[in-house]
Design goal:
By secondary structure, the protein is of the alpha+beta class. The chain has a single domain, classed as Winged helix-like DNA-binding domain superfamily/Winged helix DNA-binding domain (Arc Repressor Mutant, subunit A, Orthogonal Bundle). It is 60% helix and 13% strand. The protein has a two-stranded antiparallel sheet. Helix 1 crosses helix 2.
């Protein structure tokens, strides 16, 4: 399933687009990631990831209405495609399989040593 491999940041961005649903534009995505993960996101890195995932077919974008606040420029909104949903589902299943493969004794021994 190499076709569906996502980097960590791509996975975070896809999940955030899903969380924001109908209001997924770059500033909202950036703010949501920073708020939830307490990590700084540069707009350049975010736009690079959004464009890369759109070219892979994981996201699609559309223009909203322009407004006075943005000097008439429309916002670019993003939504997850069917392929993007498959990719994020694959990432979750892969992570779940790895988590489930860790022997419970690992967790028990680390708790008792704390």
């Amino acid at each position: 399933m190499k076709d569906y491999q996502l980097g960590e940041f791509e996975e975070i961005v896809l999940l955030t687009v899903g969380i924001l649903n109908n209001v997924s534009y770059s500033v909202a995505i950036k703010d949501e990631i920073e708020s939830r993960l307490k990590r700084t996101v540069s707009m350049g890195a975010l736009h690079t990831a959004l464009n890369r995932m759109e070219s892979k077919g994981y996201l699609k974008s559309f223009s909203g209405e322009g407004n006075e606040e943005r000097a008439g420029r429309p916002r670019r909104y993003f939504e997850i495609t069917a392929l993007g949903k498959k990719a994020i589902r694959h990432a979750k299943e892969t992570r779940d399989e790895l988590w489930n493969a860790i022997p419970t004794t690992i967790w028990q021994s680390s708790i008792s040593s704390m």
